[in-house]
Design brief:
- By secondary structure, the chain is an alpha+beta fold.
- The protein folds into two domains: about 90 residues, no CATH class; about 90 residues, SH3 type barrels, CATH 2.30.30.
- The strands form two sheets. Strands 8-7-6-5-9 form a five-stranded antiparallel sheet. It has a four-stranded antiparallel sheet with strand order 1-2-3-4.
- It is rod-shaped and about 95 Å long.
- The protein starts with a strand and ends with a strand.
- The structure holds zinc ion.
- Zinc ion binds next to loops.
- The site of zinc ion (ZN) has 9 residues, from loops.
């Protein structure tokens, strides 16, 4: 399966001014056609690559590629090529990618906002993901909340990658033994990034 490739689209045709055909010498009979190539991934255009084209004489139908053009035609052709604008959709992939980044930014902002809310109003069942040491991560689950204290059960397991912490967050991994923290201690742990994520069902 081809996932990456390139395609070209016709973007402009224009008459060359003040030029005669090198073949039949007809005045202003030369038409320049310009194409723009773009890279595509899974058939989505990602970004433009290069412009190229040819001239054709209206009268004798001779077609000239860039390397076949006499210099006076090449100069005119280059000017037309430079002024030929390609369509914005050839950037579709990049635009899509930029939108995804913006969306991810919003998502992570709203994630942080709900974390702040979870921190300020803890509920039984909330899970704190925390760092024990370098490459050692685990979780604790809120079992009871009082006015100023939070009772948690610690996860019996730890894992070496924060991104895989969901693998150990299973109810059977939490022991019956309770530990108590003041709300302030929990907030301090969150602010110093020892607690780095809060999950609520
Ligand atoms: Zn001609």
């Amino acid at each position: 399966m081809i996932i990456f490739g390139s395609r070209s689209v016709h973007i402009n045709t224009e008459q060359l001014k003040n030029t005669n055909c090198p073949n039949c010498d007809t005045k202003e009979s030369m038409l320049a056609s310009v194409y723009r190539r773009h890279a595509h991934v899974f058939w989505i255009p990602v970004f433009p690559l290069s412009k190229f084209g040819a001239t054709t004489c209206n009268h004798c139908k001779q077609t000239l590629r860039t390397n076949e053009m006499p210099s006076y035609i090449k100069t005119e052709f280059k000017r037309v090529k430079k002024n030929s604008k390609g369509p914005a959709w050839q950037f579709s992939g990049l635009i899509l990618f930029a939108l995804l980044i913006v969306f991810a930014g919003f998502a992570s902002k709203s994630d942080r906002a709900s974390e702040k809310m979870y921190l300020e109003t803890p509920l039984v069942g909330d899970v704190y993901e925390y760092k024990l040491a370098y490459s050692q991560y685990s979780t604790m689950k809120i079992m009871q909340v009082t006015t100023d204290s939070i009772f948690v059960s610690l996860n019996d397991y730890e894992i070496n990658k924060a991104s895989r912490i969901y693998r150990i967050d299973k109810s059977e991994n939490y022991s019956n033994k309770l530990y108590v923290y003041s709300k302030k201690e929990i907030t301090d742990m969150y602010n110093s990034k020892i607690i780095f994520d809060i999950n609520r069902e």
